[in-house]
Amino acid sequence: MTRGNQREKDRERAQARTGGKAKNKDDGLTPEQRRERDGKALQEKAAKKAAQAAASGGNAGGNKSTKK
Questions:
Q1: Spatial contact of 43 and 35, defined as CB atoms under 8 Å apart
Q2: In degrees rounded to 5, what are phi and psi of residue 30?
Q3: Which of 7, 20, 23, 67 qualifies as a FRET site for 29, CA 20 to 30 Å off?
């Protein structure tokens, strides 16, 4: 092992930076509830994006031709 304990030190520093919080997927929801929550969030995001595209005139591609 050429790196010695460098990897372990890096892990300790990374954990200190995050405040010791580990990723925790257990938010008290069942898989069905989580799917429902995530689905609603995606629908809201899509609706917001569609409204934004409609407000800007629907020219999200920006493919205006300026050749004459």
A1: no
A2: -80, 165
A3: 20
pTM of the model: 0.45
Helices and strands (H and E) in the chain: how many = 2, 0
What single string gives the DSSP state of each residue in 36-64? HHHHHHHHHHHHHHHHHHHHTTT--S---
| Distance (Å, whole) CA 45 – CA 26 | 24
Task: Look at the chain and count its residues.
Answer: 68
Print the SS3 string covering 10-39: HHHHHHHHCCCCCCCCCCCCCHHHHHHHHH
Cα three-residue angle 22-24-27, rounded to 5 degrees: 150
Question: Does residue 18 sit in helix, strand or coil?
Answer: coil
